[in-house]
Amino acid sequence: MQDRIQFSATINRKKIGPVDVPKDLMMIEFLQEYAGMNGTRLGCGQGVCRACTIIVDEPGKGSITVPACVTGVTWLNGKTIRTVEGIASVDDKGVVHPSPVQKAFLEHYSFQCGYCTPGFVNSATVLMEKLEKNPVPADDVEKAIEQQLEPHVCRCTGYVRYYSAVRDVILKTPGLTTGKRTKEVANNG
Amino acid sequence: MAKANGKSKWIKGLGAVAVVGVAVAAGLYLAGSSSGDIPPASVDFAKLGPQEYDVLYKRGEQVFRAGDCAACHSSPQTGAELAGGVPMVTPMGTLYGTNISPSKEHGIGNWSADDLYRAVATGIAPGRKVLYPAMPYASYHQITRGDSDALWAWLMKQRPVEVANKPGEMQFPFNIRPAVALWNVVNRPAAKEFDYTVNELARGRYLVDTLGHCAECHSPRTKVTFAMDTSRYLEGNTIEGSYAPALTPGALGERGWTRDDLVKFFRTGLSPQGVMTFRMASVLDHSTSHMPEADLRAMAAYLTQNQDMPGLQPKAPQTQVNVKGENLYVGLCAGCHGVQGEGQPHSSVPMSTNTTAMFPTPINLIRVIREGVEERDLAHGERMQTMPGFADKLGDEEMADLVNYMRQTWGGQPGNVTASDVAGHVRTIEHSK
């Protein structure tokens, strides 16, 4: 194998590349050093803390999250990717409209230092999209959130507010859950 | 009239055959469900002073650890070591480890030291109850009466766990427990105490063959009775959806093992050759990490037969490697395991000296890549971070490419694994759950 590859991808709906890069480049380095996108955070560098989570959209398969710090460009070559910069929408006048997940995080003040937030935003977004296709009973929302967000580490320990925000936005969005909610949960922010 | 006579002779003949058949079956049952003569107790428990009991108790704990009893007799839910409940999936059905705590209702609280020896060395529990050979009495048959008595002394002082046993789910006819007696007639060696005091090699052999019962997983099994194939002792075997590799001195040397590395692997669960996974992870947790270093050295000495081992010798990569597999490796694995397979100390294992790619079957490689490995504290300060599973990212074709690349680069193996081979291995893995 050659030491370099020509990397192309669709990132946040824009085609990028081909860019000549080392074959062993990790995606986070590509995003920050080559594409100038620094919203994706380098945390542990070992795929453990999930601060660097990005979304890979595969036609027919749906969307999955991957840690950009240990996922190399050779695997992402040609794929369709979303980073935290692509989650909010921008209207014709250039006004940025946060996504429902981002709004919920703002309303719940879910972050403290905010370093892990891009990863949480991306994972929660994928969860919302999964539930659109396969709604869960309203009482099982916590389980679904835990399954999706469990690998994410927040060193400020802001989990309660992150989880509350995601629970709220899921329950308020029609079509993501079935049946009526019978569980009562204390409002933890 | 002649016809009637002929018929009656025929019936009589058939009756005689049936009687002989029943008599033979009864004889076989009696032989297979008998424990025969057992050696006398090594101590008189009634006369033991507190200090002598203490010595016996400590020795009993060592026997319990070296015998790896807890790996099968723990609760998968609570982790209670003697509660039982660990499932063992066999081609004939699933069995569950029993409660071996001193609970009088659910465990072995009413057993005498004789009863324990009979169960461990001959597979016969009180009331002539034949145990399934999943309890490795075919290996434990050489346990010394002294070790068995020490084990009894230790077990009886543990806290009783009041958890009922879970009945096995064996398929017909294997659910007819007394029939195990017939298996015993053919496959059960006579209980015979092993003298392990001769030298280090003998001690090692006792630990490997008897208490550690390593051959139960690491030897192929016969097709007819599913007993250990003693003619292919420690030659490696696929069991419960993973490959228990060959442990002969030649095979160990071929894969780069040394005595020191074996000791390190037994003690910490980690060595340059890899990390303990699958069933070996519980062997580490409950057994080898607790064993005295001298015993681990004896095991390593026996397994290598005290031969000079060449040590780590990474395989020469093949000149042509699977390029799609290389791309997958660099894209999905190299972030942790390094482009050259160098790994990261105490975090992710190196691939270049790892033995998994060297095995004759790719099943373990496929399983680890598909399922990942949970973050684990190993032992004596070693730990490994989470390895994620890639089942949702790799189809059979891609898995075959990746596995071929790894086997060609680090395993000294050909890149001939096909997508349908992968699908077959995945079926074997899923069947074991």
List the helices and strands and how they pair.
The complex is a heterodimer of chains A (189) and B (433).
Chain A: E1 4-11, E2 14-22, H1 27-34, E3 53-58, E4 62-67, H2 73-76, E5 80-82, E6 89-90, E7 96-97, H3 100-107, H4 117-133, E8 136-137, H5 141-149, H6 159-172, E9 177-178
Parallel strand pairs in A: 1-5, 8-9
Antiparallel strand pairs in A: 1-2, 3-4, 3-5, 6-7
Helix pairs in contact in A: 3-6, 4-5, 5-6
Chain B: H1 2-32, H2 50-66, H3 69-73, E1 87-90, E2 93-96, H4 113-122, E3 124-125, E4 129-130, H5 137-140, H6 145-155, E5 169-170, H7 180-187, H8 200-211, H9 215-218, E6 237-239, E7 242-244, H10 249-254, H11 259-268, E8 270-271, E9 274-275, H12 278-286, H13 293-304, H14 323-337, H15 363-371, E10 376-377, E11 383-384, H16 396-411, H17 419-431
Antiparallel strand pairs in B: 1-2, 2-5, 3-4, 6-7, 8-9, 10-11
Overview of the structural elements:
Chain B: It comes from Diaphorobacter ruginosibacter. The complex is a heterodimer of chains A (189) and B (433). Chain A has 189 residues and is α/β, with parallel strands linked by helices. Helices cover 32% and strands 21% of the residues of chain A. Chain A folds into two domains: 4-86, Ubiquitin-like (UB roll) (Roll), CATH 3.10.20.30; 89-178, Orthogonal Bundle (DNA polymerase, domain 1). Chain A is built from six helices and nine strands; from the N terminus they run E-E-H-E-E-H-E-E-E-H-H-E-H-H-E. In chain A, the strands form three sheets. In chain A, strands 2-1-5-3-4 form a five-stranded mixed beta sheet. Chain A is globular, with a radius of gyration of 17 Å. Chain A starts with a strand and ends in an 11-residue tail after the last strand. The mean pLDDT of chain A is 94. In chain B, strand 3 (124-125) and strand 4 form a beta hairpin. By secondary structure, chain B is mainly alpha-helical. In chain B, the strands form five sheets. In chain B, strands 1-2-5 form a three-stranded antiparallel beta sheet, with no helix packed on it. In chain B, helix 1 packs across helix 7, helix 8 packs across helix 13 and helix 14 crosses helix 16 (396-411). Helix content of chain B is 44%, strand content 6%. The mean pLDDT of chain B is 93.
